Amino acid sequence: MVNPANHYDIIIIGTGAGGGTLAHRLAPTGKKILVLERGDFLPREKANWSALEVYQKERYHTDECWYDREGKKFQPQTGYWVGGNTKVYGAALLRLRERDFDRVIHKQGFSPEWPLKYADFEPYYTQAEALYDVHGARGTDPTEPPCSQPYAYPAVSHEPDMQVLADDIRSLGYNPFHLPLGLKLNEGDRANSPCIRCDTCDGYPCLVGAKADAEMNAIRPTREKYANFTWIIRLIMSKRAIG
User: Pairing between strand 33-36 and 10-13?
Assistant: First the structure.
């Protein structure tokens, strides 16, 4: 329960990619911070690697229904966990391109120009890539925007069949490139690598904690190191819960 008589300098709602990163960044300030999360810690269990549980039974998705603009209900395939949907993302962490911040014309209208531009965000992209253990190779993606620093970790090597395919595509004059991936992977010392390069990554929780998600890279280190936070986990979003 949150005591309404308490004063907090900052309140962070959610512990996903945004909230988790923000909590990690604000931790050293000493501010009194309240973190609210409607989900619990995702359980570490064998079902993390079960295609039946993950995809057919949707074990880690909410069972609530959302409604589209015609009023038709659907299951959103989203999860409420500490770490948000980064718990089941494919670890691909690409930057927006410079043109993404400009006015974009669509068939039914346009997306307005951002008041800030890519150059304003570039230093923070660099910091985020370091925080989330991003592996990649600068200069291989022809659409890549300007970057001030190289990736902290080398690109993840292709599987043999994928390497053949990438080589064939390159021989045709195209530019296949390694996706920037947030993984705790050490291909130079596989015996000490948390990531084992399993075949259950995209869409699955990581049983060995080797996916660079908001829980593992932001929330857990922050909770262990700093005491200026009040954590309300598994919050029921109602007046009773927050009052």
Answer: parallel
